[in-house]
Amino acid sequence: MTTVAYLGPEGTFTHAAALAWPGTTPVALPTVQDVYRAVQDGSVDRGVVAIENTVEGYVVPSLDALLASDDVVGIDEAVLQIAFDAFVRPGAGELTEVSAHPHGLAQCQQFVARTGLTPVPAASNAAACRDATPHQVALGPRLCGELYGLETYERDVQDFAGARTQFLLLARRDDAREALDAARDAHGARWRTMLAVTPVVAGPGVLARILAAFGAGGLNLSSLITRPLKVAGRYVFVLTVDAAPVDPALRAVLQGLLDEGHLLKTLAAFPERADRAVVLDLDHVPSGSVDGTAAPVDLGRELLW
Amino acid sequence: MTTVAYLGPEGTFTHAAALAWPGTTPVALPTVQDVYRAVQDGSVDRGVVAIENTVEGYVVPSLDALLASDDVVGIDEAVLQIAFDAFVRPGAGELTEVSAHPHGLAQCQQFVARTGLTPVPAASNAAACRDATPHQVALGPRLCGELYGLETYERDVQDFAGARTQFLLLARRDDAREALDAARDAHGARWRTMLAVTPVVAGPGVLARILAAFGAGGLNLSSLITRPLKVAGRYVFVLTVDAAPVDPALRAVLQGLLDEGHLLKTLAAFPERADRAVVLDLDHVPSGSVDGTAAPVDLGRELLW
After folding, report:
1. Global pTM?
2. By CB count within 10 A, which of A57, A108, A178, A269 is most buried?
């Protein structure tokens, strides 16, 4: 049986994500760093970590752990709708409090206001469900009801529907090729690759030239962030490219970057899931943006030039 | 007296940041959105929000609020060392618990383990200090000791020194020009500008061409992230440029982008603070990165091509 480590306790959103890979046994660990270590040292077969969500963007501590791990790589993804159910103990008494992680309470403000319950912060939503008193409503993933023998008080109490989190399935790098080959046989042609590119030199135009190489290869970038290095002014670029690393077009771009002296690392490669909705977030162009047809006074006001 | 809104309760790191602007009266508000709204509707003169930190990267909800605000712009920055002190009530009894926001508890794990106190999550570090019982150690910014009449139990109990958060001072857009002109007289020549660039077309190479324009203008980008729009495949790019919007070189680049039809908005413009250390984070090039001199087997292992 394949073991899959995740950030516990049982009933976290990461636990729910781990269940997306059938035929695996989830193993709760205390921290995200423990998950990376367990994969690296072989004490589990796989790991699951949150990597990006529609509200917060990249989960930077997880991304940094992936950057810092020599022998761990993402080989699959799962995208999970972030929804909260409200639970109570069977035969609960008078309800006076509502408990969740402070972020969970913040994501269910309307429910908290409507019920008039006193918010009680918990270390995690799963812990709030596990430790719910007879006077508390606990907020957490649907999974927590069955896990902790709770009754559903109300479903989908989050303020905003549609929040999603992307999770990566982690493997040891030496096991990755075999897993990716199997996935390539099972899935269609749409792949994504997360790359870390550390430019050999700093300075104006470096990122532009690197990105131009991808553009010249006809490769779309679906996300990009810069992460600072301790060396002043030096950065690593984390790019997600809509291609697999074995695709000739991407391979040619990577070879070109190597030829220019840049340092590269593939952080993850995975088939794009059929059920993957586009990551939603901002509704609109940033409010107050101007284009070249704007009057000089509006250009001055919006650009402050 | 200039009023400055910040995310309360009193004693948050944002409150501490607000004190970096002398001669102002800080006003605690319940949420970050309230801070943006209060600046926009003129009920306060200024606002302070966290925008980027060395551990989590951009504070995305705050960044998104800035993108969505038509009439609010950043006009100054403060960079704060994130340090926790441990506090107790005067004449405290036997200490059995340690209280902080779950993130605060996570950032002081060594203190928690060493003292053997039971961690108790709080809605915020400031709330933990405000509400500390005689049996609790509360963790929070130094400011909380005096604010809440607490005794210092131990200083600097965070696991890692050196974490820093950048805060922006927000103003109404119509007040920004005057404030920036005054700052330009008072400060040196090093400025930064945060820009939102929404490309008029999507597709491979768009970001590369936009960045190439900055590179050709000799302008350094110190950070860049992409934020998705609800329209599939469309993004807004948030760039920080080492120049002021009134600098001829930056103005020329912005005019060029406008001429190509892109949408622009200046999110913030501020003098680089003399006490600003470079943002530190990752120690090293991502572990396991390869360059063009690597053996084919290592290239294959690290790149999965």
Report:
1. 0.80
2. A269
**A92 contact B CB<8A:** no
Q: If 0-12 CB within 10 Å is exposed, 13-18 middle and 19+ buried, where does residue A182 land?
A: exposed
Q: What is the dihedral of CA A240, A245, A249, A251, to 10 degrees?
A: 110
B35, B68 contact by CB (below 8 A): no
CA distance A157 to A168: 26
Q: Inspect the interface and report whether the beta carbons of A68 and B196 lie closer than 8 Å.
A: no
Provide ipTM, 2 decimals.
0.74
Q: Do B214 and A204 touch (CB under 8 A)?
A: yes
Complete DSSP assignment for B232-294: TT-EEEEEEESS-TTSHHHHHHHHHHHHTT-EEEEEEEEEPPTTPPPPP-B-SSPTT-B-TTS
Per-residue pLDDT of chain B (305 residues; tens, 9 = 90+): 899 999 999 999 999 999 989 899 999 999 899 999 999 999 999 999 999 887 777 888 888 899 988 889 999 999 888 899 999 999 998 999 999 998 899 889 999 999 999 999 999 999 999 999 999 999 999 999 999 999 999 999 999 887 788 999 999 999 998 888 888 877 666 899 999 999 887 766 788 888 889 988 888 887 888 887 766 667 888 999 989 999 999 999 999 999 998 999 999 999 987 444 434 344 567 877 888 888 888 888 888 88
Q: Could you tell me which residues come within 8 angstroms of residue B252 by beta carbon, excluding any fewer than 6 positions away?
A: B217
Is B83 in CB contact (< 8 Å) with chain A? no
Distance, in Å, from the CA atom of A117 to the CA atom of A99, rounded to the nearest integer, reads 9
Q: Nearest CA to A199 among B220, B295, B55, B165?
A: B220
Q: From CA A286, how far away is CA B267, in angstroms rounded?
A: 10
Question: Are the C-beta atoms of residues A227 and A63 closer than 8 Å to each other?
Answer: yes
